[in-house]
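As promised in the previous annual report, we have extended the structural survey to additional targets. Below is the entry for Lipoprotein.
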Amino acid sequence: MKVHRLVLALGLAAACTGCASGLNSQQKAELRHYEANGLAVQEKSPGTGAALGLLPGGGSFYGREYGLGVVNLLFWPLSILWDPVSGHDAAESINYTATKEHVNRLQRKDVDAIDERLQSGQIDVAQYALEKRKVNKKYDFN
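The corresponding structure token record, generated without further manual editing, is:
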């Protein structure tokens, strides 16, 4: 009886900590905005992460949560209850981070090009300010 309670307690603890944190609503909206504008980067497929979550620890390993993957491996088949969600959320989180880095690189590149045009005298300060505002608007989520 004590062994069953211990297994149940460990299973409950693993279930409570098994899901990846995922994105908050602001981050989800930001990622959808970048997807709609063709700026999103998809390093990992959320669908694949969810599907691999049906395998022992697969969703967590796919989402680069290796410690959690070992725990889910040990608690398989119980981990099927949370690992697909964990794999999906981890893939989305990876894609969000990659997209933010990609967008920041593109914005820096565009601003650097405008800076170079200003320094070479191709544009004046007023044109510089206008073009820089356009670049910031292009990449800004808010």
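Residues 2-139 form one domain. The chain has one domain: 2-139. These points will be discussed at the next consortium meeting with the crystallography subgroup.
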